[in-house]
């Protein structure tokens, strides 16, 4: 090989993988955009059940990896898939997305006046088979809420697509959340500090 070609080969950095977000969440899309990342979105229906013996962070990590496995067969070698799942835990009870408004009200009645944990699990699956699964936890403190406040939130906002029937970024987050122990973005649905760290390790981002 000519010396010039050898030098070119040595100095050319490896191409970064193309990031693919497998999520319909507008909050996760906004967070990745705010990080300055280029990504595409890929969607399909994935069952979100989990084995009964799993608890807390195990549930979030299992669901994130389970979602990634559904996309794996169609992943190109130069793609890096990101999947995530957020759950709300009141002690060891997992409060997932409510089925209807009545269940949303019941969930919020359980959460009001108490502290609970939010876990977001993330799976990064590379097209070459490498996989990283992790989770992050934030403890959320709610002030006591009246039934009228809870019903107002359920009637005027969108609790049915959110774990625990609430979004920290909307009205109830402003009037009910008194304190966070951990990352606010984990509660929103993506622990961006951890995501950035892992993407750097995988060579997907850099400054």
Question: How would you portray this structure in words?
Answer:
With 207 residues, the protein is an alpha/beta fold. The protein has 8 helices and 7 strands. It has helices spanning 3-11, 26-34, 57-71, 101-111, 147-156, 171-176, 184-188, 192-201, and strands at 18-21, 39-41, 79-90, 93-95, 115-126, 131-142, 177-181. Strands 1, 2, 3, 4, 5, 6 and 7 form a 7-stranded mixed sheet that branches. Helix 4 (101-111) packs across helix 5 (147-156). The radius of gyration is 20 Å and the shape is elongated.
Mean pLDDT: 92
- Content-based structural category: alpha/beta
Span of the ends, CA to CA:
32 Å
What is the makeup of the main sheet?
Answer: 7 strands, mixed
Low-confidence stretches: 4-12
Number of helices: 8
What is the tally of beta strands? 7
Give the helix proportion (percent range). Answer: 25-40%
Tertiary shape: elongated
What's the gyration radius in Å? 20 Å
The ordered H/E elements are HEHEHEEHEEHHEHH
Percent of sequence in beta strands: 15-25%
Brief overview, please?
The chain contains eight helices and seven strands. The chain has 207 residues and is of the alpha/beta class.
Set down the secondary structure blueprint:
Blueprint lengths: L2 H9 L6 E4 L4 H9 L4 E3 L15 H15 L7 E12 L2 E3 L5 H11 L3 E12 L4 E12 L4 H10 L14 H6 E5 L2 H5 L3 H10 L6
Parallel strand pairs: 1-2, 1-3
Antiparallel strand pairs: 3-4, 3-5, 5-6, 6-7
């Amino acid at each position: 090989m000519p010396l010039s070609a050898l030098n070119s080969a040595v100095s050319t950095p490896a191409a970064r993988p193309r990031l693919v977000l497998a999520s319909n969440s507008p909050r996760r899309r906004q967070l990745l955009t705010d990080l300055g990342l280029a990504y595409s979105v890929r969607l399909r229906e994935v069952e979100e059940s989990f084995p009964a013996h799993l608890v807390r962070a195990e549930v979030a990590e299992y669901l994130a990896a389970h979602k990634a496995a559904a996309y794996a067969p169609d992943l190109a070698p130069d793609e890096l898939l990101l999947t995530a799942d957020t759950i709300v835990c009141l002690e060891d009870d997992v409060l997932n997305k409510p089925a209807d408004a009545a269940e949303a009200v019941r969930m919020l009645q359980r959460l009001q006046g108490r502290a609970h944990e939010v876990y977001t699990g993330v799976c990064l699956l590379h097209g070459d088979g490498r996989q990283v699964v992790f989770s992050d936890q934030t403890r959320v403190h709610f002030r006591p809420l009246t039934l009228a406040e809870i019903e107002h939130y359920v009637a005027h906002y969108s609790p049915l697509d959110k774990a625990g029937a609430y979004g920290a970024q909307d009205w109830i987050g402003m009037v009910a959340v008194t304190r966070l122990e951990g990352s606010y973005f984990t509660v929103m649905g993506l622990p961006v500090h951890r995501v950035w760290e892992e993407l750097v390790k995988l060579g997907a981002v850099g400054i």
